[in-house]
Amino acid sequence: MVDFQIAALDHIARVSPDQPVPRVVRTLGGRTRANVAWADGLRTTVRMLTYLDGVQIRETPRTAAQRRAMGTVLAKLNLALRDFTHPSATHNLLWNVSAAHRLAAKLDGIVDAPRRALAESFMTRFIDHVLPRLASVRAQVIHNDYHLYNVLVAPEDHERILGIIDFGDMLYAPLVGEVATAAAFHMTGNPDPFEGPAQFVGAYHATLPLTESEQEIITDLMATRHLITALISEWRAARYPENRAYIMRHNPAAWEALSQMAALSRNEARDRLLTEVRKDK
User: Fold this and answer.
1) Which superkingdom, per the lineage (predicted)?
2) Which of 22, 95, 227, 241 has the fewest CB atoms within 10 Å around its CB?
3) Can you name the CATH fold of 53-92+101-273?
């Protein structure tokens, strides 16, 4: 997996050198990583990346311009990765919205009956409406973790993105899942939960247009991201109760988002998310 991440960063640096991503620092011998031995004899592999300046977006006020900047930058990153391939890109990952059906067994861990019913309804929606369509949409290597913790902005200009970090969840998956996952993080902190995601998706679409098939399922996948956040956090908190506070930090927002989306039909939710995508139609 380390080689996968190194190769992706090298590819981005080669095809799109202006991308605000870390650069791989080579050893004096020109290698991208090195094997080292600790004092106790344990051997491990190390790599070095360049430091990116800036502050995490989560520490700044949310604005429409900032969300649109995030959408544009993600689209450019996806364009840079469009032709990248690697043998490790198809690995299994819990945080893959396109494979949410693999988490169905974890519904049994939801002890609250109303919440379990809510989660079951969105799992059914994914299986019935999204899963059959995934074979017909574009797929490529995606970042898969583009959120407020992993995007850095200038301290004096919170709409100027200086860095994208943490490529540890990269994988080969449907492109629309990348956009939906990123958009999901913009539902909170606004009286209208769809306003932020709509701004983000609209800006993304202006740079890298979503196909009609992708537009049809992007809202379902945004809900699916909240669903897997709820399922994985509940499951992990039960397994590691000593770390419950950290594991559950995104859990309340996920349940709130699912409740908000359940109040609308699929078509209503889709139309609200795609307001800026379809405004000129």
Assistant:
1) Bacteria
2) 241
3) Aminoglycoside 3'-phosphotransferase; Chain: A, domain 2 (3.90.1200)
